[in-house]
Structure prediction request, 368 residues.
Amino acid sequence: MSEFGRNDWRRPRINEREEAQVQDPSQMAVGVVGTGGMGAMHAENVHNMLANAWLAAVADVDSARAGRLAERCGSAAVYSDPVALIRDDAVEAVVIASPDPTHLPLVLECLENEKPVLCEKPLAGDAGGALEIVQAEVELGRKLVQVGFMRRYDPQHVAVKEAVASGSIGEPMLFKGWHRNLDQEPGLDSAAVVTNSTIHDLDSARWFLGEEVEEVYATGVNTATKLGKDVLDLQLIQFSTTGGRLGTIETNVVSGYGYEVGAELVGELGTVQIAPPSGAVVRRDRTVSQRVEEDWLQRFHEAYVIELRSWIESLGNSTSTGPDAWDGYASLVVADACIASLRSGSPQKVPTLKAPAQYATEDSEVLW
Ligand code: ISE
Prediction:
């Protein structure tokens, strides 16, 4: 029995695997671990939006919920034990969208079974955990891990990346990111704000600037007493990079008005900014208004589909260009420094990183 669930996973019904046999062999058989909001979205995207993959299995400790998802998505096999899904020979590639603390052991299980895996962020609970994954991949001698930094596939983020890369603003000197969740259930602590939310902005900063963060200074305040008065739900990070560039990141997990992600790069010649949501602008009662999205599933709907499609394509032609285990690790190294800064009240140096050769290939350098 694995530590993730009861050992009552069932073998796929015969008719499920019979159906599997008539699948187009060029389609990748994907298993999705975790059937909450994120996992259900990925499973439905595999089933409804991808021509190059089919949903072979889903796993969740709540097997009734997994069963309902499987029914909506063809005839996927249902497991309550994610390890059993990973070990299922019929599953060729795995998406991990279970709670954050399960990511490390499940990714290691995928590597043990030599299965490509798209793991939601954070890759592990801290940089030490992510380093175990990097080391396991280095031992294997190939990259099987992609991290769910879906913003890299968002057309608005890609447009900004392209504008920076084309030199249109000269050298980018300052990254300004802001990241707001509508609301937050109690239970999240200040460190998890960094590892669960800000981790995306840390990845964006590394991606846009093309440099590692060298020093961080993080502060925060409590704006939502329902989370506990010690929880810093509104945080501000200042950072500098190895090449002397600067950055700020505001993360606000209880904005009260909606979900919003923004970024602006200030360069020597100009600035470039993520386009704001493009919903209709309504004028009424002497007021101008525009809808704000509720959450990341709405805001990044398109990005999640492109992410999955590109991931599956990269497995078919063995050219991984997505955010890899090294990106998952490097972002957690900075996240750990931010948490240390929040705790100590002082700036923190970020350890200097040198990527093993397999992460420094031409492919891993081409980030979009
Ligand atoms: C959530 O877990 C996500 O991954 C979203 O992308 C992020 O914007 C949000 O802040 C997190 O809570």
Notes: Confidence is low (pLDDT under 50) at residues 1-21, 361-368. The radius of gyration is 21 Å. The pocket of ISE is lined by residues 179, 181, 196-197, 200, 296 (CB under 6 Å).
